[in-house]
Amino acid sequence: MEVGIIGGGINGLCCAWLLQQQGHTVQLYERDRLMAATSSRSSKLLHGGLRYLEHLEFRLVREALRERDAWLQRVPELARPLRLVMPIYHGGRRSRWLVRCGLYLYEHLAGRSALPRSSWLAARELLAADRDLLPDGLVGGYAFYDGQMDDQRLGLWVARQASDAGAVLKERCEVRSVERSGRIHFADGSSRQHDCVLNVCGPWAEQLLLRSGIASPYRLDLVRGSHLVLDRPCPQAYLFEVPGEARIAFVLPWYGRTLVGTTEVRQPIDAPVACEEHERAYLLGLVRHYFPRTASSERVVEAFAGVRPLLRSASDPAQATREYAVHRDGALISVFGGKWTTARALAQRVSRILAESGNRGLLDRTRCGNC
């Protein structure tokens, strides 16, 4: 089957890689450069989403945890285990027993993971490992493991696998519209017919359908996540409760510096994607709260932002589901949402839908031949 894929982020690239491996003929079209947008603006984590358990997203967390382990095993030169600590403070929104229960469930959903189990660390152990950590009210903390990666380098590794398998990956090739029949119309006025077209445009998936005159079965919440890179070493990776909120934010080691993120701000589809001043202040406020000794010396060396396409499910984007959806309409398959960690699993779901549609098409042709 000849498959056209629109979108050169991690989900589109994983689809190209898997489908080409399965014997399809794949051409992928990216309007800019591969891995140049949302997929290279993440928190650099391969994780199951510990906080998603609070929203009862057990299926997604189980899938993400197993995919996390698969990435760590598949590409150890670009993905590594990362030990994180979630400190517990007096007066925090999540008690010690609640975090312990969450981690127990997290590890149960992971199955037979090679990563070490979580453990409790006393306050003195945390402060010995990081003398700048806020000591006031510190009870202790739980250490557990997820994965860390360089999102752009790992995504380009996937692109090489897809290309080596035979997929054709075209950059600077903008798609203007699609048809349910599998025809793609390009910005230069040309068009091409495919047996199947995958709309894997991430934040722009809904917009592509609307521009093509096709009703979208799902609405997307476009949420900007901003990050800062600080010119300071980070001796320990952390999950922190944002002071006064239920949100969780990360403080992570990143190439000898400190990565802080993320925010959750609604993003118009046609607005520039950039870390705004109030987000910068928000993230620096988090750092100054938990590391008061070094607050005056923090220097921001980089700020970046990406847009997460979330299925619209809540008025507060922090409460929105992180699940994804795949919808088939004729020869057009559209993907809505999707996490970096689960990109390969998403591609497998797309492959199953493609196989079902191919079998259905063969059955229909056979029936017509018997008419």
What is this entry, summarized?
By secondary structure, the chain is α+β, with helices and mostly antiparallel strands. The protein contains 8 helices and 19 strands. Strands 3, 4, 5, 6, 12, 13, 14, 15, 16 and 17 form a 10-stranded mixed beta sheet that branches. A 6-stranded mixed beta sheet has the order 7-2-1-11-19-18. A 3-stranded antiparallel beta sheet has the order 8-9-10.
The CATH H-level superfamily of the largest domain is D-Amino Acid Oxidase, subunit A, domain 2
Helix-strand makeup class: alpha+beta
Tell me the name of the CATH class of the largest domain: Alpha Beta
Q: What value does the Rg take, in angstroms?
A: 22 Å
Low-confidence stretches: 362-371
In DSSP terms (H or I, runs of 4 or more residues), the helix count works out at 8
| Helix residue percentage | 25-40%
Which overall shape is indicated by the principal axes computed on the Cα atoms? elongated
* CATH architecture tag of the largest domain: 2-Layer Sandwich
The count of DSSP E runs of length 2 or more, i.e. the number of strands, is 19
CATH topology of the largest domain: D-Amino Acid Oxidase, Chain A, domain 2
Q: What's the overall average pLDDT, rounded? A: 93
Q: How many structural domains are formed by the residues?
A: 2
The helix-strand sequence is: EHEEHEHEHEHEEEEEHEEEEEHEEEH
Strand fraction band? Answer: 25-35%
